[in-house]
Amino acid sequence: MMIFVNAFVVGGIICLIGQLLLDVGKLTPAHTLSTLVVAGAVLDGLDLYEPLIDFAGAGASVPITSFGNALVHGAVTEAQQSGLIGILTGIFQVTSAGVSAAIIFSFLAALIFRPKG
Amino acid sequence: MDKESKLTPSQQGYKKLAGKHEIKRPVLKNCVKAFIIGGLVCTFGQMIQNGYVAYFDFTEKTAGDPTVATLVFIASLLTGLGIYDRFGQFAGAGSAVPVTGFANAMASAAIEHRTEGYVLGVGGNMFKLAGSVIVYGVFAAFVIVLVKYLFFGL
Amino acid sequence: MRMMASILSFLIILSTTACQTNEDSENIQGQSVSKHTIISQMNAETAEKAAERVERVDKAQAVSLEKDIYIHLNVEGFDRFFLKEIRSQTKKEVEDAVKGSKVQVSTDKKIEMEITELKERLKDHQITKKKLEEEIKKIEEDMKA
């Protein structure tokens, strides 16, 4: 049960930070999301994002910040195994599912649906 | 504040006038909506993840991929049906920040530019918003891991 | 006479083999799995007690196969921020409690499901050593994944 409460609160807070960036920071959505992704990457660099996922589950793995975390994670894992070149080969390893799914389903949506309004 | 002092007095006067007529954003209301909706989306994601762990052969760690794929699928579907945009207008960052917002951005760009052709329209415009996210994410990851590798022994 | 003797001996041999197959099928039906030895889970129990002594661990479930111990920990609340630390601390505690053991610790919910199920089957003695090895191999793979 607690995992749902933690997921709700942490996910809500991350989205709240995004809203503040939009309203108070007056950033565009693209700027906001890019900032959050970089924040996720930095937090994983400091080994702080994984504990957040341990605590909040999907509350930390669903927001776009986890994308940044996954990029760093993949690069670190590969670099540990293969050295410097691992940074390049590993970056998309963990995020592969998400990005591929987004491209594929977006294309399918364009095939099936008509633009509205 | 340096930016403002570089303006001529009439420009400063105009800025003041424009500011008075700018639509005030209900920041507090938006924040509450973003918090609640964002929290609900993540909770929904948690339910999906638990479902994959309980009913399929996934561990908590490996269930992350199918969970994200499922959320992306749902978001693309809702985008195609036109439902996600209404949801997005209401929820602001609550719908844009989760990975569903990423999928919505790509799907809606793809659908919108369909009339321009599948290669140039759909293919060329899909990454309108997502592109910045990926570029900065990848570059940030590169810098961070490089620094870690060179100075902190990973 | 000789004919009778050979027929009789043949019948005797036939009946004894027939009896043997009967016994086997009884075992297969699982009435008493006495052919399947009771696999000691003493190491697992020691491990569980040692793990639960660790302050932030709420509950521990373990299965063991001789000196290999596979243990799942339940950690709740803000302690979950320190899962990595808790796992390595518990591993050390269990390795101290059971000398010469090879310990693998997990906090994954799936592992909890698998270990709990395996424990039930061990308690009811509804499992062979071979099946136990198979199940434990799967748990080990899931822990590494």
UniProtKB/TrEMBL annotation, chain A:
<protein>
    <submittedName>
        <fullName>Stage V sporulation protein AE</fullName>
    </submittedName>
</protein>
<dbReference type="InterPro" id="IPR014204">
    <property type="entry name" value="Spore_V_AE"/>
</dbReference>
<dbReference type="Pfam" id="PF03862">
    <property type="entry name" value="SpoVAC_SpoVAEB"/>
</dbReference>
<keyword id="KW-0812">Transmembrane</keyword>
<keyword id="KW-0472">Membrane</keyword>
<dbReference type="InterPro" id="IPR005562">
    <property type="entry name" value="SpoVA"/>
</dbReference>
<feature type="transmembrane region" description="Helical">
    <location>
        <begin position="91"/>
        <end position="113"/>
    </location>
</feature>
<keyword id="KW-1133">Transmembrane helix</keyword>
From TrEMBL, chain B:
<dbReference type="InterPro" id="IPR014203">
    <property type="entry name" value="Spore_V_AC"/>
</dbReference>
<feature type="transmembrane region" description="Helical">
    <location>
        <begin position="131"/>
        <end position="151"/>
    </location>
</feature>
<dbReference type="Pfam" id="PF03862">
    <property type="entry name" value="SpoVAC_SpoVAEB"/>
</dbReference>
<keyword id="KW-1133">Transmembrane helix</keyword>
<protein>
    <submittedName>
        <fullName>Stage V sporulation protein AC</fullName>
    </submittedName>
</protein>
<keyword id="KW-0472">Membrane</keyword>
<feature type="transmembrane region" description="Helical">
    <location>
        <begin position="91"/>
        <end position="111"/>
    </location>
</feature>
<feature type="transmembrane region" description="Helical">
    <location>
        <begin position="34"/>
        <end position="55"/>
    </location>
</feature>
<feature type="transmembrane region" description="Helical">
    <location>
        <begin position="67"/>
        <end position="84"/>
    </location>
</feature>
<dbReference type="InterPro" id="IPR005562">
    <property type="entry name" value="SpoVA"/>
</dbReference>
<keyword id="KW-0812">Transmembrane</keyword>
TrEMBL record, chain C:
<keyword id="KW-0449">Lipoprotein</keyword>
<keyword id="KW-0732">Signal</keyword>
<feature type="coiled-coil region">
    <location>
        <begin position="108"/>
        <end position="142"/>
    </location>
</feature>
<feature type="signal peptide">
    <location>
        <begin position="1"/>
        <end position="20"/>
    </location>
</feature>
<protein>
    <submittedName>
        <fullName>Sporulation lipoprotein YhcN/YlaJ (Spore_YhcN_YlaJ)</fullName>
    </submittedName>
</protein>
<keyword id="KW-0175">Coiled coil</keyword>
